[in-house]
């Protein structure tokens, strides 16, 4: 929907480098297709550039003689369905008075920049989970920021070098932890974070504290929400996001997350155009078809083919575009799609089990890190690392995971593991979507990330949450149509209670297929090709990488995982700029 980027002189007397003023707008959407709205604000010491797709119908750009404020996303302030223009006006009034309490009332996902020209003060902030990213870096007295990492990567003015810690975490988790990125010089805002720059000083604050609830923090210390109350909050989350839409797009798989959303929308008399990209003859497709047949005319299910795209959002755009060419689709906001993202971790508490909680209670978080990593099959590629890297990175990696688990104190240590997952795995879950949002123009509506809903879940007993136990109880409050046909469940979690013949392939079934000679050699070639680019980093051992490539070619082991890791290192190594 919206992407913005800008630059700010920390000293008001300074002027921005002309190269920055020139290059920042060049990397935003430039397609001359009449789509979206460009906005620009510029002084000698500050510049802000924005592109808005119009998915929310209002650009939420507030500009007056006192400065400028740009809002991406929809904060859903005070739990109300207010226009984005009204919300940005309220936020400007609050932020210019240094009052941040209004941000804590937000329930939606958003990113915001506010520049007070009279005080030469900059504020950057994001939502309760940090789902919509803002990246920033400080160099030569200038702070540059953007909602897409590729914008900062493209600035030749900005020096960039690889972050050994960030890249190690990226190789193990598929994302860096905390505020890190692949680059040492670039950080990303965290959950509830406010970056405030004034009078030459940069400060970091939080408008909400996810630590143990207190009357000052939540107004309901020690109160644990029942499944019925959680259902009510989720219903609120759906209704405030749907607004006046009578017909909508939504993803619909064979699982519980998207079905819960669709069932709530149907219960409120909305028509659904549902998109399913699952493989033919899979449970994910078959169970969605069964559910659609049970619902009837109010839901139209489109089972669409997949393909090779930069990310899932481009797949959705391509499929939706082709669908609209051949069928008459009548939806109110064509650029908005409902998505069940956030449900499996937020409510289902995946990636955790009883043993993990027992270890945490008996040995503390320091004792649970190794089990957590092993349980979730997360590991560094230490066998191919150089000797110096093997001596340092694993220790720092372990310390980083532990530090993140200890970030917010909770009475239940298991809940701290949950928050680690929420603010690392889930916080980064849609970063690829937002990275290219000015190119695909789609906005995802994600009620499972509703802040009030998540705050209520965090207050529940952790042992009740794991293995989809809380989710299963909560699902009993869903409209009956959601519970008439089977749905797919995680292995070892609460099973679907509907006993019918299982059909279709299971999403988590282990499939073993011996690779062909050509496939083995292709992976070996990828390993060696990527290593040539990364050799100068000193992270990996030439001998060990070569040995793995030979074993891969001979079919003695499958090392495709290493090809993926080396390609990530190679990609970011080519984007560094150490001028």
Would you write up a description of this structure?
- It is a single chain.
- By secondary structure, the chain is α+β, with helices and mostly antiparallel strands.
- It has helices at 18-26, 84-96, 101-104, 149-153, 164-173, 227-242, 256-267, 283-295, 312-326, 343-346, 354-363, 365-375, 387-405, 413-426, 431-435, 437-440, 451-458, 462-465, 469-475, 517-534, 542-554, 560-573, and strands spanning 2-9, 37-42, 46-52, 61-64, 67-73, 110-116, 121-126, 135-139, 142-146, 187-188, 193-198, 201-206, 247-251, 271-276, 299-303, 336-338, 443-445.
- The strands form three sheets. A six-stranded antiparallel β-sheet has the order 2-3-1-9-8-10. Strands 4-5-6-7-11-12 form a six-stranded antiparallel β-sheet, with helices on one face. The chain has a five-stranded parallel β-sheet with strand order 15-14-13-16-17, with helices on one face.
- Mean pLDDT is 93; it is low at 215-222.
- It is built from 22 helices and 17 strands.
- It has four domains: 2-206, 4-Layer Sandwich (Glutamine Phosphoribosylpyrophosphate, subunit 1, domain 1); 227-342 and 430-483, HUPs (Rossmann fold), CATH 3.40.50; 354-426, no CATH class; 517-573.
- 39% of the residues lie in helices and 16% in strands.
Name the features.
4 domains; six-stranded antiparallel sheet; Rossmann fold; alpha+beta; Glutamine Phosphoribosylpyrophosphate, subunit 1, domain 1; globular; 16% strand; 579 residues
């Amino acid at each position: 929907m919206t992407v913005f980027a800008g630059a700010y002189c920390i000293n008001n007397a300074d002027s921005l480098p002309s190269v920055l003023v020139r290059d920042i707008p060049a990397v935003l959407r430039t397609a001359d297709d009449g789509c979206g709205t460009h906005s620009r604000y510029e002084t000698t010491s500050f510049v802000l550039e924005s592109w808005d797709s119009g998915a929310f119908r209002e650009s939420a750009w507030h500009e007056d003689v006192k400065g400028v404020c740009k809002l991406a996303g929809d904060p859903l302030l005070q739990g109300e369905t207010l226009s984005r223009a009204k919300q940005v006006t309220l936020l400007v009034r609050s932020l210019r008075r240094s009052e941040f309490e209004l941000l804590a009332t937000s329930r939606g996902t958003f990113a915001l920049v506010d520049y007070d020209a009279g005080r030469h003060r900059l504020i950057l902030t994001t939502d309760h989970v940090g789902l919509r990213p803002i990246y920033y870096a400080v160099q030569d007295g200038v702070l540059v920021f953007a909602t897409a990492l590729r914008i900062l990567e493209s600035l030749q003015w900005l020096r960039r070098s690889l972050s050994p810690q960030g890249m190690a975490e990226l190789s193990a988790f598929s994302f860096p932890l905390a505020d890190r990125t692949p680059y040492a010089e670039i950080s990303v805002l965290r959950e509830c974070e406010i970056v405030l720059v004034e009078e030459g000083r940069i400060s970091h604050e939080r408008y909400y504290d996810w630590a143990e609830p207190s009357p000052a923090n939540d107004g309901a210390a020690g109160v644990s929400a029942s499944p019925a109350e959680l259902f009510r909050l989720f219903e609120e989350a759906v209704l405030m996001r749907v607004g006046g839409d009578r017909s909508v797009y939504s993803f619909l798989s064979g699982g519980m997350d998207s079905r819960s959303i669709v069932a709530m929308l149907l219960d409120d008399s909305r028509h659904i155009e549902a998109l399913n990209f699952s493989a033919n003859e899979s449970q994910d497709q078959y169970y969605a078809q069964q559910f659609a047949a049970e619902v009837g005319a109010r839901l139209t299910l489109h089972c669409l083919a997949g393909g090779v795209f930069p990310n899932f959002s481009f797949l959705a755009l391509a499929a939706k575009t082709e669908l609209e060419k051949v069928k008459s689709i009548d939806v109110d906001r064509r650029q908005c799609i409902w998505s069940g993202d956030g449900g499996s971790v937020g409510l289902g508490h995946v990636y955790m089990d009883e043993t993990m909680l027992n270890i945490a209670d008996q040995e503390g978080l320091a004792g649970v890190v190794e089990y957590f990593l092993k349980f979730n099959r997360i590991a560094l590629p230490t066998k191919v690392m150089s000797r110096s890297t093997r001596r340092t990175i694993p220790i720092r990696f372990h310390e980083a995971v532990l530090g993140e688990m200890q970030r917010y104190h909770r009475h239940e240590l298991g809940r701290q593991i949950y928050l680690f997952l929420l603010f690392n795995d889930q916080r980064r879950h849609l970063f690829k979507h937002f990275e290219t949002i000015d190119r695909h123009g789609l906005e995802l509506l994600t009620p499972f990330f509703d802040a009030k809903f998540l705050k209520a879940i965090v207050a529940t007993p952790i042992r009740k949450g794991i293995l989809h136990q809380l989710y299963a109880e909560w699902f009993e409050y869903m409209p009956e149509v959601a519970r008439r046909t089977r749905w797919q469940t995680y292995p070892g979690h609460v099973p679907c209670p509907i006993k019918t013949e299982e059909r279709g392939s299971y999403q988590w079934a282990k499939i073993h297929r011996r690779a062909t000679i050509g496939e083995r050699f292709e992976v070996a070639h990828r390993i060696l090709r990527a290593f040539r680019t990364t050799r100068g980093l000193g992270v990996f051992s030439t001998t060990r990488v070569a040995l793995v490539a030979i074993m891969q070619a001979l079919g003695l082991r499958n090392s495709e995982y290493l090809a993926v890791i080396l390609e990530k290192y190679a990609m970011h190594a080519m984007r560094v700029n150490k001028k």
